[in-house]
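Fold this complex.
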Amino acid sequence: MRTRYPDLLLVAALTVVGAAVVLTSVGGGMTRVVLGLPLALVLPGYALTAALFPEQGLGLLDRLTLTLGTSLAGLTILGLALNWTPWGLTPATWTVALATLTLAAALVAIRRRQGRVAEPVRFSLGGISRRQWATFALGAVMLVAAVMVDRAGALEPRGAGFTQLWILPGTQPGGEEVRIGITSGEPSTVAYRLELESGSQVVRTWSTIELAPGKTWQATVAVNPIRPGARTAAVLFRLDFPDIAYRQVALAGSK
Amino acid sequence: MTLVAGAASGESMPIDDSTAAPFLSSSLRVAARTSPAPSTLGWLAPLCLLATGGLLLISIADGAARSGQAWAEPLFWLGLLAIFVPITGRLLLPGPARLERIGLIAALGAFLYLVKVFHSPIGFTFHDEFVHWRNVQNAITSGHLFERNPVIPVSGDFPGLASAAAAMSQLAGIPIFTAGLIVIGVARLVAVLAIYLLYESVSGSSWVAGIGAAIYAANPGFVFFDAQFSYESLALPLAAMTVFVLARRVHDRPQRHAWSAVAMLGIASVVITHHLTSYILAIFLTLWAITGLYRRSERAGEKGVAVAALLTWVAVVAWLIFVASLTVNYLFPQVTTATKQVVTLIAGETTGRQLFRSYAGNVSPLWEQIVAYTSTLLILLGLPFGLYQVWRRHRRQAGALALAVAAIAFPASFPFRLTRSGAEAANRSTEFLFLGIAFVLAVGVVELWLMGRRDWRKPALALGGAAIIFLGGVILGFAPWARLPGPYLVSADSRSIEPEGITAARWASTYLGPDNRILADRTNVLLMLGYGGQRPITGYGNGVPTYRVVLSPTFGLRELAVVRAAELHYVVVDRRLAWGLPLTGVYFERAEPDAARVTFPLDPRDFSKFDLSTSIARIFDSGHIVIYDVGGLAGAH
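Structure:
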């Protein structure tokens, strides 16, 4: 027996499966993306449109526009409603709310269609020739190429590079420890020399710290102040320019 | 195309039956015109291929621009034209079937959206995007909306975008950036389809609708501003859908309750998503209702527009009073200042700002100025013909008259362009006014110019005009330095977002923890807000002129008082601010001295004042960016 609402049954099925995937995280990240996105952006609007317009006459374009538009509008309103619940906006509340809304709308749509002679909703793009499919496919390949070219260009490191040096008090309150760190954002591996000072006197030196791009070096060091209240500072040098202070940091002096 | 008898009196509507929507042929009296098409999609596939080629050129141009290559810019323009011209050229022809026109419009909207995506493909870079990114972060972290945003406090009171993006991110388990791209991409599709349907519903012609939607894509905000992750980019499509739904309701009496329900949903979502769009929607619906009354239309649907207008006003006012009262302080000063400047300009008490000159003194190339002026001139020249035709053939449609009135408002925005405060508002108003402008121009082009004897020169000329309007829109809508990515520029929003600043903000998030009270310049405020999870303290958001602390040449009692009043914990100093004048007109915010009138760059020696105080810790140094811990100064923490 042919059903008059296969579209709505499909919507209901996708909603249930999508909700289950989001709630249980079964199937991994890609499954969640594939089923979670329609749960937010397509299924609620489609069911709502079907419930409001059971009659024939709403064309493909109208249905598409209303499906996407009411889904987006529904998300803004539903978020507001969830905000006022004690549970707030969480993956679980979104899933339950959207699934309930979609299934309820689908049920209403089925009920409204039952009493009418209207034909089921049909989707057709007309005849697309093989040549057109081939052209679309070529366009898709070019689009992917354009995306890859653009992303590669955006991710390519440019400029002179930089190095971060930082100093923070130790995690023990009132202690004499300091945390020092270096992160290299340079385009190639760089060798550094780090000097730790107390009251302008070098109290410790790390003569060679080699860092590849993106790598971090950190240390927690106990510092005995050279005199009470002396400032603790760290000065970083690049070994290829050993006499020029490359980065400097300092903690505030105590009173 | 033929017209039914009496069309000249405005009592009938022209329509090409073969391409019209089913509802139109049943609800409007029309005459038929045959338009055999071998395939319903016609030239859609090859034109999409061409547009993809344009996008490929733009991706190459973006890459070259990032390396500072001068040839990137001509390639960018070529890519834009490769997207716009073939599609619009096809839409100008009478032959394409309705489905092909729809496909072309959807493709145009999508490809032009991708131009913005290609500009910043791996992260947010536009100013407002960081603000809304933080709103979504807050919604996901706390589970609740309406958290105050430190940079644009009013944005938190319009949580529609944060709600939609949080839903996407939480349901699909994707990053906020990806969720944002999808939300705005879908909204863009809704916008172009709704605008097409609106024009088709009002004009009764898919030819007019296709050309109108293509001209709408030529508005200054379309390629970049309304493609960014911002609340207007979502609200505008929802408003367009609402207007289309109400227009359709007029013709579809049997299903008017269903259309009303969708309209109510649309109005509610617009009101909670964006202040300005909701006000414009209320004004437009009121205009539509008034023109409907004036026409004494017998259509019951027009009364529905009046009810919708009333409900929109009620919702807008209720939201303003009970939820978003901050909006008054946000928008009102901008409007009053701009109006005052226009008045003084007209009175001759001041001279207008110099057009095509950036705050840093850069002047746009001559060809850009010529194209921009020509595009405005073409619109102004075309409007009277379109308005005449709207009155002659479509005045029975109150919606058409309302769109015509919106188009007439376009010249009124010109004086504002000459003022400092009004220029931005005038620029931003065009995405709303273009709803009317595009419709009126399309009616004029189709019904007065293209209809009748076929002559290839007519669509060619129209295409030339449309291309100039499109190029002019891009030129007027986005500053030359902002259209393409590229090397760092001082206080230049997307051009100031680069790895050193991003990693400094990430360092703050990791090592300082979230939500510290922090002072930074315009660019680092955004980075610290988005990547750093910090709480920037600004004069605008907190009422304390924190910018003085960095701009002052010394650190004295006055600066100490500001640090204490603002309860600052950290100060971010970006030494690159001294490299030049700020492209956006400000180093920190609009309240700073000499904002928009800066003539000398900052003195780099002013930054070293923090190093002279032993009470201030210099905790981070990445070369250009230094972070100071000033928490010890005030006993604030």
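DSSP finds 25 helices and five strands in chain B.
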